[in-house]
Design brief:
The complex is a heterodimer of chains A (about 500) and B (about 120).
Chain A: H1 7-12, H2 14-31, H3 39-58, E1 64-66, E2 71-73, H4 75-102, H5 107-125, H6 129-147, H7 154-185, H8 190-197, H9 204-221, H10 229-236, H11 239-264, H12 269-292, H13 297-318, H14 321-348, H15 364-367, H16 369-383, H17 389-403, H18 407-433, H19 446-464, H20 467-478, H21 483-488
Antiparallel strand pairs in A: 1-2
Helix pairs in contact in A: 2-3, 2-5, 3-4, 3-5, 4-5, 4-11, 4-14, 4-19, 4-20, 5-6, 5-11, 6-7, 6-11, 7-8, 7-9, 7-10, 8-11, 9-11, 9-12, 10-11, 10-13, 11-13, 11-14, 12-13, 12-18, 13-14, 13-17, 13-18, 14-16, 14-17, 14-19, 14-20, 16-18, 16-19, 17-18, 17-19
Chain B: H1 5-27, H2 35-38, H3 57-81, H4 83-110
The chains are: A mainly alpha (about 500), B mainly alpha (about 120).
Chain lengths: ~500, ~120
């Protein structure tokens, strides 16, 4: 069908269509509701996300392509789309109270959160270089605006400018790499690229293309040495956006990276394996060591998220089905624990307290025992202590590395987990053992309460009973285009 | 690499033309500068003040909106030319495209960007 879309495409693209319609409704609804009824927008946004999740689940069993082969409709895409919708829903739930304290008008905020989600969904489903790039741009532009959403706040503005300049720069590098891939293979379809490149893996230009693509994506996942923007941007952005940025943007970039490497560039596996081996080791080590010295919890979590990007990169280095499965599992677990930790920080934002310094957490246990307990669970999980989900995630990643013969990578990962415990436990020490500071009281709104309950429950349940998530991730990883063929190349 | 030779020649010609032209006028051309000749050209009127003044941000907003709707029209021409071949599928696609831009228009209008007088919405 040369002229456009078939009726079948309308069904296969239903999640994207529902989300696009929904975000336009949210935008227009904001314009025609009065200031007093703005809180309905949050619930409308949640409704849109739920309505998007339904077709995602319904389509998760397919293994086909839509929109003339630009988007894949498979389990891998469905897994990530669900992750994004979930992260967006938690972001919206923890946002309302925060925005009220900051006296920001929520209108475009929810619209932009949905736009970013749409971009991520395209990134996870795209199997064409241009489609992937458009998805990445949609997400990135939304995040540039969201980062600077607190207009009177200087830190927020500074973060937005830094993120924009470095983001645009990294997109340029990525695009240069993509254009080289296109030039050498003569097509933008990843699956055709893989076939075209299978015979010419010795060309120097192709190596340059792999390096440029890897560098551009490493910016997006904040892997060392392309991480310099992350701490400043995470610190300055509104806390719920920091959460969404560190979970959604990172997971979407990993999804895109897996599509690019495993579907498009499997012939170059020896080259990108070596590259990401170095990036993984550097990210884990530098992220954890830098996190130790931070006094600001948002900065600390930023460095910790750099370290976590390092752990997750282990899955790419192995490039085995088990490694990819472990990446999916870890990203889902990471979504819950990281969103939860930022949710507690967003809750601490009050009239007179910024709530992101370590001392702002002092004595939290005595004021809000439940919030302190939630933070304890998230910190232990991020540190990888059983019986939390973080332990299961790390266990799978490291065992996948050992299975694939990367024993030293696993050893470095375990050593880094041990280092990271120091700064995660320090947060707990502040909550339990420090004197409470005089300040306005903390009152969780129903939205924040729901979000934190879900995050805590998921972190503990996955830690105790991880089998369903593993099976789901394993089934999803299998559908990753040419993965079986790639892996037989080893 | 033979296929690239014409491009290299073209680049060489382009650079060469500029360099030769500038160099020749520097070397050969007579020069008698006067203050009038050094001043920025402004249609014969003496220049007043500095060109780097602060403009109202509204100019940029209106320019951006113009660009958006300009591109919308630019898309409409090829669509109109190919209407018969595209059929109903193409028709509904352009309706979706219109719908998206219309939402943007409603947004711009309700935010007061088109309202030249007031300062609200900025």
């Amino acid at each position: 069908m040369p002229t456009g879309y078939s009726a079948n495409d309308l069904v296969l693209l239903l999640p994207e269509i529902v989300l696009t319609t929904g975000l336009l409704v949210v935008l227009v609804a904001d314009l025609f509701t009065g200031r007093s009824r703005q809180h309905w927008l949050g619930w409308l946004t949640i409704g849109v996300l739920v309505a998007t999740a339904v077709p995602i689940v319904a389509l998760s069993g397919h293994a086909t392509t839509a929109a003339r082969g630009l988007l894949a409709v498979d389990g891998f895409g469905a897994f990530f789309k669900l992750l994004f919708v979930l992260a967006a829903a938690i972001t919206v739930l923890i946002s309302r109270q925060y925005l009220e304290v900051e006296q920001a008008r929520p209108g475009e905020y929810y619209f932009l959160v949905l736009c970013a989600t749409l971009g991520m969904m395209v990134m996870a489903a795209g199997i064409d270089l241009i489609t992937l790039f458009i998805g990445l741009e949609t997400m990135a532009v939304s995040f540039y605006v969201l980062t600077g959403f607190l207009r009177p706040n200087r830190r927020s503005n500074e973060a937005a400018i830094k993120y924009f300049v470095l983001g645009a720069f990294s997109l340029g590098i990525l695009l240069y790499g993509m254009s080289l891939v296109y030039g050498l293979s003569g097509t933008t379809r990843l699956r055709e690229v893989a076939v075209a490149l299978a015979t010419q893996s010795d060309s120097l230009a192709l190596k340059l293309a792999v390096v440029l693509v890897a560098a551009g994506m490493a910016f997006k996942i904040a892997a060392v040495p392309f991480h310099m923007w992350a701490p400043d941007v995470y610190e300055g952005a509104p806390t719920p956006i920091t959460a969404f940025l560190s979970v959604g943007s990172k997971a979407a970039s990993f999804a895109m990276l897996l599509r690019l490497l495993l579907e498009g560039l499997p012939a170059m596996a020896p080259e990108w394996r070596g590259l990401f081996y170095v990036l993984a080791v550097l990210s884990m080590t530098v992220g954890n060591i830098a996190a130790i010295t931070q006094g600001n919890v948002k900065r600390m979590l930023a460095y910790s998220s750099i370290a976590h990007a390092g752990y997750i990169l282990i899955g790419i280095v192995t490039a085995t089905p088990r490694g990819v499965t472990a990446m999916l599992v870890y990203l889902m677990i990471y979504a819950f624990m990281q969103m939860g930790a930022f949710g507690v920080l967003a809750l601490l934002r009050r009239r007179d307290v910024v709530g992101d310094e370590l001392k702002d957490l002092s004595g939290l246990f005595f004021r809000r025992p439940l919030a302190a307990f939630a933070m304890l669970v998230f910190m232990l999980s991020l540190g990888g202590i059983p019986p939390t989900a973080g332990f299961m995630g790390k266990f799978w990643l490291f065992s996948a590395a050992i299975e694939a013969g990367y024993v030293w990578l696993a050893v470095i990962g375990v050593l880094n987990s041990a280092i990271s415990l120091y700064y995660y436990v320090r947060v707990v020490v502040f909550m339990w053992m420090r004197e409470e500071l005089e300040s306005a009281s903390v009152h969780p709104s129903p939205g924040v309460a729901v979000a934190l309950t879900v995050a805590v429950a998921a972190t503990i349940i996955i830690g105790v009973y991880p089998a369903p998530l593993f099976e789901l991730a394993e089934a999803s990883a299998k559908t990753l285009g040419m993965a079986p063929r790639v892996l037989s190349l080893r | 690499m033979e296929g690239w030779l014409p491009i290299v020649i073209m680049i060489a010609c382009g650079v060469g033309l500029g360099v030769v032209g500038t160099a020749l006028s520097q070397l050969v051309g007579p020069r008698s500068p006067t203050p009038e000749k050094g001043a920025p050209y402004e249609c014969g009127v003496p220049p007043v003040g500095d060109a780097r003044e602060r403009q109202s941000v509204k100019f940029y907003l209106v320019a951006m909106i113009f660009l958006l709707f300009d591109i919308e029209v630019a898309f409409l021409y090829p669509w109109a030319m190919a209407l018969r071949d595209l059929g109903w599928v193409g028709f509904f696609q352009i309706l979706v495209f219109f719908g998206l831009l219309l939402t943007g228009y409603i947004y711009v209008w309700r935010k007061g960007v088109l309202d030249w007088g007031s300062q609200e919405g900025l």
